[in-house]
């Protein structure tokens, strides 16, 4: 399918009726822009630690949309989205880095031992086409990740019994090399980055198949949301916002710096795991309720789901076991803000990934609505602390106490039926203490 072909079923529609002051507008999402942006991002290799080129591309897109931004020393991008009030009170965070590989050893047979950059299994890299980047930018090589025993005509069933792991694979370089000396003559050395080819495809039905959809699909959805806001003459952001694009999420330190110190809330955008036992779906946006670091903010998470429901945006809630996002390093770094997670449904994450354009549109729509809304608690959240009298507690998150009297009346084996027993005393067959 042509990358610019428009499919009406993948385009959102604005909520009918005029919006009153402060009412978020459900803006149209330019799916052609989303699709083209996603394909462009996927074709730029950006394993964690080698992300300058993709950040240049993201910056170019933001320049075209008219947003002001800067770049930190390490390469994190910070864009400002002005709001009705002064200051930056919320952030949307997404990462541009991906999983990848690095040369561990130049082997005597002319092949490369590699280790993973980020957490991913060698199972899904076997057979992958790769690019090897040397320190000489004019010397870039292609290759393939293969198991040590890769010839079926030689090894037969041993191919299936050799196991799975990074110590059992190697990179075959597409050059006439048979020794370590041959490889080093190419300029390849220990510590060189090896990028897994994304090989992106979009089907006629709107499915997107590619490596590195985590998190370039999320990044494309964010940019599509920002485009919709930039082009609208009616949409108004109630509070100033920050758009943060990080470069180290896959290795655990994405949003450790770069955030405004005055944030009241942040939303991380990442993949939502589609697998057996998960609630996420490829054609919906997911609101994460908990990951391996713990629950996300009670109020912000439920508010995001309510915004989706109020604007007929297909959304589900989900919980993830083996997962963390940019929200975790931000909170670990000490930011005092509510944190939530929005995701696009992704099948086979960190493997042969797949998502759907409808899910990315749903994510972009929810971001558009959220960025126009006020803070979760508009008065309370404007300061990082306040008095107990002003704290929104029982009225928004009641927790009725357990009853003081846990006395029960039970049939007694000793014939004294009806004599009250305490819970503990009942287990021991003793009468309840007098009150």
Automatic annotation (TrEMBL):
InterPro entries named in the record: Peptidase_M42, Peptidase_M42_aminopept, Peptidase_M42_dom2, Peptidase_M42_hydrolase
Q: Which Gene3D superfamilies match?
A: Peptidase M42, domain 2, Zn peptidases
Source domain of life: Bacteria
Keywords on this record? Aminopeptidase, Hydrolase, Metal-binding, Protease
Region annotation (Disordered) ranges: 1-24, 388-435
Sequence ranges of Basic and acidic residues compositional bias: 403-415
The UniProt record lists the keyword Acyltransferase: no
Concerning its family, UniProt says:
Belongs to the peptidase M42 family.
Q: Which Pfam families does the UniProt record give?
A: Peptidase_M42 (PF05343)
Q: Does the keyword Protease apply?
A: yes
Q: Which organism is it from?
A: Kineococcus gynurae
> What is the protein name for this chain?
Osmoprotectant NAGGN system M42 family peptidase
């Amino acid at each position: 399918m042509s990358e610019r072909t428009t499919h009406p079923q993948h385009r959102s529609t604005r909520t009918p009726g005029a919006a009153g002051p402060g009412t978020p507008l459900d803006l149209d999402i330019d799916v052609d822009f989303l699709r083209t942006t996603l394909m462009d991002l996927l074709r730029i290799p950006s394993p964690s630690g080698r992300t300058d080129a993709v950040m240049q591309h993201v910056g170019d897109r933001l320049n075209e949309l008219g947003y002001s931004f800067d770049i930190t020393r390490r390469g994190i991008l910070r864009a400002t989205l002005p709001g009705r009030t002064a200051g930056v009170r919320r952030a949307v965070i997404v990462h541009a880095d991906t999983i990848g590989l690095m040369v561990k050893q130049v082997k005597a047979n002319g092949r490369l031992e590699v280790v993973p950059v980020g957490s991913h299994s060698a199972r899904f890299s076997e057979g992958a086409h790769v690019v090897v980047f040397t320190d000489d930018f004019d010397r870039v090589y292609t290759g393939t990740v293969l198991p040590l025993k890769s010839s079926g005509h030689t090894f037969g069933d041993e191919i299936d019994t050799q196991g799975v792991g990074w110590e059992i694979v190697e990179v075959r370089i597409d050059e006439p090399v048979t020794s370590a000396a041959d490889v080093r003559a190419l300029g390849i050395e220990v510590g060189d980055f090896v990028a897994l080819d994304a090989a992106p495809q979009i089907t006629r039905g709107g499915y997107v198949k590619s490596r590195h959809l985590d998190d370039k699909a999320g990044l494309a959805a964010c940019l599509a949301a920002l485009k919709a806001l930039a082009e609208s003459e009616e949409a108004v952001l109630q509070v100033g916002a920050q758009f943060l694009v990080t470069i180290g999420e896959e290795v655990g330190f994405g949003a450790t710096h770069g955030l405004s110190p005055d944030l009241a809330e942040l939303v991380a955008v990442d993949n939502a795991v589609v697998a057996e036992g998960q609630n996420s779906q490829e054609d919906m946006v997911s609101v994460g309720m908990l990951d391996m670091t713990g629950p996300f903010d009670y109020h912000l998470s439920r508010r995001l789901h309510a915004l989706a429901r109020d604007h007929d945006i297909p959304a589900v809630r989900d919980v993830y076991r083996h997962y963390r996002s940019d929200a975790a390093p931000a909170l670990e770094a000490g930011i005092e803000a509510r944190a939530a997670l929005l995701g696009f449904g992704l099948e086979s994450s960190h493997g042969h990934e797949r998502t759907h354009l409808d899910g990315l549109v749903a994510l972009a729509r929810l971001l558009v609505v959220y960025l126009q809304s006020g803070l979760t608690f508009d008065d309370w959240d404007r300061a990082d602390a306040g008095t107990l009298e002003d704290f929104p507690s029982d009225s928004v998150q009641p927790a009725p106490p357990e009853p003081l009297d846990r006395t029960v009346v039970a049939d007694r084996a000793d014939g004294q039926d009806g004599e009250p027993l305490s819970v503990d005393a009942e287990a021991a067959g003793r009468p309840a203490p007098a009150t």
